[in-house]
């Protein structure tokens, strides 16, 4: 087996709102939009009667998949990075300070940009559902 990455998926509660964040705030281009349903899909994802709407976004060498399920799952409290199972998406940017300054009002950040011991500059923001997105400048 020689697997290669195809996409990184984030389940969202409102697809339009999530697309607006990733497209308009983070500047990712929409590659495709589609819906999937039916018995095979519901069986494959293990959710009775499930269907879902998808948007794929271009993040350079990565494809980001946003997915909104019907029925919607239970609410889960926002996880912290140090908890097992914590998830975040990492996106490299050229000028982290400019990105930080250009963030729209209301975009939640953990802290202002920081420079780590390795010299990498990092900034964590939350998408509209609270998913952590790491913006980093190498």
From TrEMBL:
Question: Which biological process, per GO, is one annotated for this protein?
Answer: L-methylmalonyl-CoA metabolic process
Q: Which keywords accompany this UniProt record?
A: Metal-binding
Q: Signal peptide position in this chain?
A: none
- A Pfam family found in this protein is Glyoxalase
Gene3D superfamilies from the entry? Answer: 2,3-Dihydroxybiphenyl 1,2-Dioxygenase, domain 1
**Which InterPro entries did the record assign?**
Glyas_Bleomycin-R_OHBP_Dase, Glyas_Fos-R_dOase_dom, MMCE/EMCE_epimerase, VOC_core
Tell me the SUPFAM superfamilies matching this sequence.
Answer: Glyoxalase/Bleomycin resistance protein/Dihydroxybiphenyl dioxygenase
What GO molecular function annotations does the UniProt record carry, in alphabetical order? metal ion binding; methylmalonyl-CoA epimerase activity
Query: Which parts of the sequence belong to the VOC domain?
Result: 4-138
Q: What is this protein called?
A: VOC family protein
State the organism named in the record: Haloarcula salinisoli
Lineage of the organism? Archaea, Methanobacteriati, Methanobacteriota, Stenosarchaea group, Halobacteria
């Amino acid at each position: 087996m020689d697997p290669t990455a195809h996409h990184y998926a984030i389940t969202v509660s409102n697809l339009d709102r999530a697309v607006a964040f990733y497209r308009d705030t983070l500047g990712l281009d929409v590659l495709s939009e589609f819906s999937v349903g039916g018995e095979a899909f519901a069986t494959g994802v293990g959710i009775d009667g499930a269907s879902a709407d998808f948007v794929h976004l271009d993040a350079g060498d990565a494809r980001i998949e946003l997915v909104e399920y019907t029925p919607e799952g239970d609410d889960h409290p926002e996880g912290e990075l140090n908890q097992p199972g914590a998830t975040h998406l990492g996106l490299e940017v050229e000028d982290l300070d400019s990105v930080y300054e250009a963030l729209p009002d209301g975009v939640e950040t953990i802290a202002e940009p920081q420079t780590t011991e390795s010299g990498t500059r990092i900034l964590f923001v939350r998408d509209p559902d609270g998913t952590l997105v790491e913006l980093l400048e190498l």
